[in-house]
């Protein structure tokens, strides 16, 4: 008996505008509670909303990045429900006439590229935030109330937890490149709900959809989906059924927990937002926004492969963080051996420089300093091992490479007569290795090169040492 997993995502992204969606209050995280509020976002009588133009333009950028059809006309509605964090008793949002529809994000799976459809993105406002205290009371912070959001609704095209995680990673990186949001899950600027059910491929029977909330990481999204799939398969094989339900992810127990059963379809009594007219977006506005858009990840990857000759895998790793990609280009301005640069980035740089899940990194030196170090290695002034030692100290202490090379006395010995003298000493000290070479054991050359390097305290040019050793051994 086979089963097909069906997954769709609803993603809320807070937009990085200076002010809120429908008023002039500052859109900022971490301010003192209830200090970024006004009659409009508090829903006081007589206060009317005014749409934030910047929020619309960020939505246009997002729609463009995800290959969506931007609608020339969209409308706002009131989504009615009661909850303490909703000051007006309704949320201003979009429903049937949203800002954009019918897009996709392409992910890489083991079976090749796969397009995950995006049904629509809609502009709306965020709610306030409930703060639960230790003594059992709940306090309300309305600073977040009215912050502009886009809700990104995917098609149910994902077939596993892994595909959902890959989709979210691609989405987050794209939004980070666009700089339309800081997409930090821990701060609530990126939130994701999962809808998952299964289908028996032989009988066509489907399980009830579970909506999973309280997901605070992409790894939690993947684990929650995999858990739900296993749970629903077990129910179906037992012949049991359940109603559509909302569940939450328990990170400590690694399982989903029932929150509430949906006995009837949710009725939010959507009604037109009478204080906001239709939103009209013409082609001229769209083109103006697109002209100012940042370079997208896939475009940057292709450009890095073309300009710097990077392999596809290397380009994807380096462009996985905009900060890393920007630093690579800064170094490339001063050092044009791109093969060597790529090799050092993929090994030493990414091993020593921490890149966070948010794509942030802290490099205690400038791009031209890294370029200087690579130039010293390429020119033979220091050897590769010495270069790694210098780079480690640059990362740990932020010191200039030229100062480290001088302090440590790492300038490579390139004088032929000096290296020749050390080679002769090593051969005289290791007659048994000479005999082994004569007997056809070429591997002893590596050992002898190591002895020369040891005698020179790592300063000898290893290529010259190798060539001289082979020359004298053959004699």
Automatic annotation (TrEMBL):
Keywords: ATP-binding, Ligase, Nucleotide-binding, Protein biosynthesis. It is an enzyme of class 6 (ligase). It catalyses: L-aspartyl-tRNA(Asn) + L-glutamine + ATP + H2O = L-asparaginyl-tRNA(Asn) + L-glutamate + ADP + phosphate + 2 H(+); L-glutamyl-tRNA(Gln) + L-glutamine + ATP + H2O = L-glutaminyl-tRNA(Gln) + L-glutamate + ADP + phosphate + H(+). It comes from the Bacteria. InterPro entries: Asn/Gln-tRNA_amidoTrfase_suB/E, Asn/Gln-tRNA_Trfase_suB/E_cat, Asn/Gln_amidotransferase, Asn/Gln_tRNA_amidoTrase-B-like, GatB, GatB_C_1, GatB_Yqey_C_2, Gln-tRNA_amidoTrfase_suB_CS. Signal peptide: none annotated. SUPFAM superfamilies: GatB/YqeY motif (SSF89095), Glutamine synthetase/guanido kinase (SSF55931). Its EC number is 6.3.5.-. Residues 326-473 form the Asn/Gln amidotransferase domain. Pfam families: GatB_N, GatB_Yqey. Belongs to the GatB/GatE family. GatB subfamily. Allows the formation of correctly charged Asn-tRNA(Asn) or Gln-tRNA(Gln) through the transamidation of misacylated Asp-tRNA(Asn) or Glu-tRNA(Gln) in organisms which lack either or both of asparaginyl-tRNA or glutaminyl-tRNA synthetases. The reaction takes place in the presence of glutamine and ATP through an activated phospho-Asp-tRNA(Asn) or phospho-Glu-tRNA(Gln). NCBIfam families: gatB, PRK05477.1-2, PRK05477.1-4. Heterotrimer of A, B and C subunits. This is Aspartyl/glutamyl-tRNA(Asn/Gln) amidotransferase subunit B. The lineage of its organism: Bacteria, Bacillati, Bacillota, Tissierellia, Tissierellales.
């Amino acid at each position: 008996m086979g089963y097909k997993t069906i997954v769709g995502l609803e993603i809320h992204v807070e937009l990085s505008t200076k002010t809120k969606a429908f008023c002039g209050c500052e859109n900022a995280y971490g301010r003192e509670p209830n200090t970024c509020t006004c009659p409009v976002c508090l829903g006081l009588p007589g206060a009317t909303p005014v749409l934030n133009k910047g929020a619309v333009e960020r939505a246009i950028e997002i729609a463009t990045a995800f290959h969506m059809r931007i609608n020339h006309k969209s409308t706002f509605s009131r989504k009615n429900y009661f909850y303490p964090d909703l000051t007006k008793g309704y949320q201003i949002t979009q429903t049937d006439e949203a800002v954009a529809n019918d897009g996709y994000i392409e992910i890489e799976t083991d079976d090749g590229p796969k397009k995950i459809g995006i049904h629509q993105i809609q502009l709306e406002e965020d709610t306030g935030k409930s703060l639960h205290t230790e003594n059992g009371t709940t306090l309300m912070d309305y600073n977040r109330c009215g912050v502009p959001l886009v809700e990104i609704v995917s098609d149910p095209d994902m077939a596993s937890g892994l595909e959902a995680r890959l989709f979210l990673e691609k989405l987050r990186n794209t939004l980070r490149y666009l700089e339309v949001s800081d997409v930090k899950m821990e701060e609530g600027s990126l939130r994701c709900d999962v809808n998952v059910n299964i289908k028996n491929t032989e009988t066509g029977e489907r399980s009830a959809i579970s909506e999973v909330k309280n997901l605070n990481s992409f790894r939690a999204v993947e684990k929650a989906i995999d858990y739900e799939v296993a749970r629903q398969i077990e129910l179906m094989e037992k012949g049991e059924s359940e109603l559509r339900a909302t569940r939450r992810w328990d990170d400590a127990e690694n399982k989903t927990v029932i929150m509430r059963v949906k006995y009837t379809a949710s009725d939010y009594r959507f009604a037109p937002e009478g204080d906001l007219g239709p939103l009209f977006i013409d082609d001229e506005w769209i083109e103006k926004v697109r002209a100012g858009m940042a370079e997208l990840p896939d475009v940057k990857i292709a450009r890095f492969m073309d300009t710097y000759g990077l392999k596809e895998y290397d380009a994807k790793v380096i462009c996985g963080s905009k900060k890393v990609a920007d630093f690579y280009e800064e170094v490339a301005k001063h050092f044009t051996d791109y093969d060597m640069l790529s090799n050092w980035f993929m090994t030493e740089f990414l091993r020593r420089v921490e890149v966070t899940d948010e794509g942030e990194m802290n490099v205690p030196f400038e791009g031209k300093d890294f370029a200087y170090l690579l130039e010293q290695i390429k020119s033979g002034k220091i050897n590769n091992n010495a270069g790694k030692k210098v780079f480690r100290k640059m990362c740990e202490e932020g010191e200039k490479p030229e100062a480290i090379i001088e302090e440590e006395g790492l300038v490579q010995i390139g004088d032929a007569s000096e290296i020749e003298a050390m080679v002769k000493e090593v051969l005289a000290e290791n007659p048994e290795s000479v005999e082994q070479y004569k007997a056809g054991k070429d591997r002893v050359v590596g050992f002898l090169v190591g002895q020369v390097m040891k005698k020179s305290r790592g300063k000898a040019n290893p290529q010259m040492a190798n060539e001289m050793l082979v020359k004298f051994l053959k004699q």
